[in-house]
Amino acid sequence: MPDEIARVLARSSPSSAPGPNMTPNSVWKRMTRVAPHLIDELLAPLVAYGSNPFTLKRVDGIVLDKPGKPSYDSPSSFLVIILL
Questions:
Q1: pLDDT in tens, 49-74
Q2: What 3-state DSSP class applies to 69?
Q3: pTM of the predicted model over 0.90
């Protein structure tokens, strides 16, 4: 999982903050270079017990039509953007 976390962070902007704690992505990127296993270890108890912090339970979503679809009768015709 550390490889997957590093891959996702590599695509993110270093100046933006992913969540309410306002920690910039540059901090998370540096942490994965110095100690790639650390984020995985921090998340492991949450995954093991199926428990999520309240901030992850509340999300805002925006539903957008995908352009060029012949019909909007199917869920695959929409793009959902989730803001945690």
A1: 877 766 666 677 888 888 888 787 88
A2: coil
A3: no
